[in-house]
Sequence to fold (262 residues):
Amino acid sequence: MGVIIKNYVKNLKNEKAHYIFIGFPLIISICVGLTLKGKMFENYAETRSRLFAIVCIAIWIGLFNSVLEICKERSSIKMDLDSGFKASELFISRFLVHAVICLFQAIIIFIICTIFVDFPKEGAVTSISAVEYVLSIFLITFSADIMGLLISSLCPSNDIANRSLPFILMVQFIFSGQLFELGKTLDKVSKFTISKWGMDLLGSIGNITDLTVAMPLEQKVLDAFEYTSAHVMHLWAILLLFIVIFSVLSIFFINRIKFEKK
Fold:
């Protein structure tokens, strides 16, 4: 396992991927950070839309990290599998490296955002909200990253993976329930999106239902942004479940690569 991780990190360095993993989050976080100025954590509607922007960039960055990681190395992965390496080993090596990358990116996103707006000092679970925000942004980014690995393991070429990315992003954003009201059927679909739970998570930590509102909030909104430690930990658990499910499916489809014809 150590050899696989070392080789994977070496390949990333040769590709100068650090410019992508660090430079891209830095630039996009600054761009979004400029939009955060205003009535952030003063007005409910303004805060909700700005927190959703943070969720969007976390998902975008996560997918961008990994959507080509498997398909671009498909031939070498097949050789590794034929040589006796297990699909789980090949996946876990990427899983661990990308976990570190996503954590670093989450810290970058949060630090850049704090330059433009003051976040609440106290969180729902701990006395330091910064810890909860970084952990939450990490889970959103990492779950999107692992979803990207799953997409990459399904796609036989870089071209197909790139073409699927806009569709995946569109589904995440449209079915998040933040852009417009969803009907009962579509509301059930939203439960399968990272964006829905990510937004619920950031809104709950910020206790946004206690902010100034133009009209009374519906009960489902109050439930979604419940400011309690149990609710926040429940949302963390849901994102962890996404990561587990995407991981298991990724290993399954990576294993199938060895049966493909050259």
Q: What stands out?
A: DSSP finds eleven helices and no strands in the chain. The two ends are 26 Å apart (CA to CA).
